[in-house]
């Protein structure tokens, strides 16, 4: 999940093995989520939910950064990388079909923040 934010981009990575990290284009991030059960559980739930939306995603070869206020979701599959982008406000208001994925991604971010010392 890639978020277009005021000072650049935040990139959340989550994997089926429960690993998750977040990286900020301005520098830094939170890595090593696999070592924490709360992050592991949130990441697995996020990735599992993502499989339900593969049919509405499009195959992509380029990875442009989302503009401020947009969220891009990427899924690495055996058919290549699939993506879908939505407006964050529509996701928050549950008006975009993929809104459940947004909230589960936000939960991964929340869980990563609980393990961050800063």
Key structural traits:
7-stranded antiparallel sheet, alpha+beta, 118 residues
Task: Please give the structural blueprint.
Layout: E1 2-5, E2 8-14, E3 20-24, E4 29-30, H1 37-50, E5 58-59, E6 70-77, E7 80-87, H2 88-92, H3 99-115
Antiparallel strand pairs: 1-2, 1-6, 2-3, 3-4, 5-7, 6-7
Helix pairs in contact: 1-3
Q: Explain this structure to me?
A:
By secondary structure, this protein is an alpha+beta fold. It is built from 3 helices and 7 strands, in the order E-E-E-E-H-E-E-E-H-H. The chain has helices at 37-50, 88-92, 99-115, and strands spanning 2-5, 8-14, 20-24, 29-30, 58-59, 70-77, 80-87. Strand 6 and strand 7 form a beta hairpin. The model has no long low-confidence stretch (mean pLDDT 94).
Radius of gyration: 13 Å
Report, as a whole number of angstroms, the end-to-end distance: 22 Å
Helix content: 25-40%
**Biggest sheet architecture:** 7 strands, antiparallel
Low-confidence stretches: none
- In terms of quaternary structure, the protein is single chain
List the secondary-structure elements in sequence, H or E. Answer: EEEEHEEEHH
Our estimate of the beta-strand percent is 25-35%
> How many strand segments?
7
- Structural class of the secondary elements? alpha+beta
How many helices in DSSP terms?
Answer: 3
Total individual domains: 1
**Morphology call:** globular
How confident overall, as mean pLDDT?
94
Strand order of the largest sheet: 4-3-2-1-6-7-5
What's a quick, concise take on this entry?
The chain is α+β, with helices and mostly antiparallel strands and 118 residues long. The protein is built from 3 helices and 7 strands. A 7-stranded antiparallel sheet has the order 4-3-2-1-6-7-5.
């Amino acid at each position: 999940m890639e978020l277009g934010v005021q000072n650049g981009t935040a990139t959340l990575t989550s994997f089926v093995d429960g690993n998750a990290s977040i990286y900020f284009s301005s520098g830094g991030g939170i890595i090593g989520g696999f070592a924490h059960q709360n992050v592991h559980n949130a990441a697995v739930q996020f990735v599992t939910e993502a499989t339900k939306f593969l049919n509405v995603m499009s195959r992509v070869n380029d990875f442009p950064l989302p503009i401020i206020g947009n969220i891009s979701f990427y899924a690495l599959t055996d058919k290549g990388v699939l993506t879908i982008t939505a407006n964050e406000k529509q996701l928050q208001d549950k008006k975009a079909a993929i809104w459940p994925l947004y909230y589960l991604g936000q939960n991964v971010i929340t869980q990563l923040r609980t393990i961050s010392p800063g």
